[in-house]
Specification:
Rossmann fold, seven-stranded mixed beta sheet, six-stranded parallel beta sheet, Quinone Oxidoreductase, Chain A, domain 1, NADP, globular
């Protein structure tokens, strides 16, 4: 193994053009960590927020973007058990995925599902950790409940639709055009609402209101989500594409016994993420290996085309996941 690697760094806060290829030293795994030789890295909204200077990495994390990847374990830190050099895994990363090598806690690695390629496996961790922890653990979604997920054609949306549908919920979603709506319904949504042509509040209220809403839009959607909830409904907020500040009438929250909560994945403790990984291994990975659910793939870019990948993601024309091809 050489001592340096190809990587893409954020040269300054700004648009996609600030992502530049560089040479970096290969990181060394610390206690409980593994070193991965990366095959593919997923591209996600938090990467773009970090690039724009709006989402600083934790102090101990790599400054390189990239929160998920697939690859081969090539070195083990002290205290690692249950995983071996040579294992093919996909992993949730604290950062550093836009590179040929990255370190991550061994407990945040999951095996590549049977029959799945490395490209598809790279798209699992960030999205599935986020959806499982927010929809099922925090949101408490149960079979038979009405579930609304915004941004149904995104990586989060396509994953949430499939998982919620598989576990027996009635799934509703929003998307920006007819093609995106069609794909959402093919994935298991009972009704996909074109938000450019219909008022999702009216559609959901006609169904009696949503028991659970997963939202990453924020802004003007917050009061609309409150109106869309059934009595005792729950809203889980995971991002704010329209901004985090809005005027909200909390009398409705009190009178209809609503719950508003939310989370971000990256700042959570290693232990919390390991527990999510354990739940996924038990509840979801068998479904992936059986082909009952699968990541929806949009496009692939070379590592040094990371800026183009970000431009596509922020253009919001993509459907599903975008990946960077890193290894051979």
């Amino acid at each position: 193994m050489t001592k340096t690697m190809r990587a893409v760094e954020i040269t300054e806060a700004g648009g996609p053009e600030v992502l530049k290829p560089v040479e970096r030293d290969i990181p060394k795994p610390g206690h409980g960590d593994v070193l991965l030789k990366i095959a593919y890295a997923g591209v996600n909204r938090p990467d773009a927020l970090q690039r724009a200077g709006l989402y600083a990495p934790p102090p101990e994390a790599s400054d390189l973007p990239g929160l998920e990847a697939s690859g081969e374990v090539v070195a083990l830190g002290e205290g690692v058990s249950g995983i071996s050099v040579g294992d093919k895994v996909c992993a949730l990363l604290p950062g550093g995925g836009y590179a040929e090598y990255a370190t991550t806690p061994a407990a945040h690695c999951l095996p590549v599902p049977e029959g799945m390629g490395m490209k598809e496996a790279a798209c699992l961790p960030e999205t599935f950790f986020t959806v499982w922890s927010n929809v099922f653990q925090r949101g408490g979604l149960k079979a038979g409940e009405k579930f609304l997920v915004h941004g149904g054609s995104s990586g989060i949306g396509t994953t949430a639709i499939q998982l919620a549908s598989h576990f027996g919920a009635r799934v509703f979603t929003t998307a920006g055009n007819a093609d995106k709506c069609r794909i959402c319904e093919e994935l298991g949504a009972e009704r996909a609402i074109n938000y450019r042509e219909e008022d999702f509040v009216e559609v959901i209220r006609a169904e009696g209101g949503a028991d659970l809403i997963l939202d990453m839009v924020g802004g003007s959607y917050l009061p609309k989500n409150v109106k869309s909830l059934a009595n005792d409904g729950r809203l889980v907020q995971i991002a704010f594409l329209q901004g985090p500040k809005v005027e909200l009438n909390f009398a409705q929250v009190m009178m209809r016994r609503l719950t508003i909560t939310g989370s971000t994945l990256r700042p959570q403790s290693d232990l919390a993420k390991a527990r999510i990984a354990d739940a996924l291994r038990e509840q979801v990975w068998p479904l992936l290996s059986a082909g009952k659910i699968a990541p929806v793939m949009d496009s692939e870019y070379a590592l040094d085309q990371a800026a183009d990948a970000h431009a596509r993601m922020e253009g919001s024309t993509h459907i599903g996941k975008i990946v960077l091809k890193v290894g051979g």
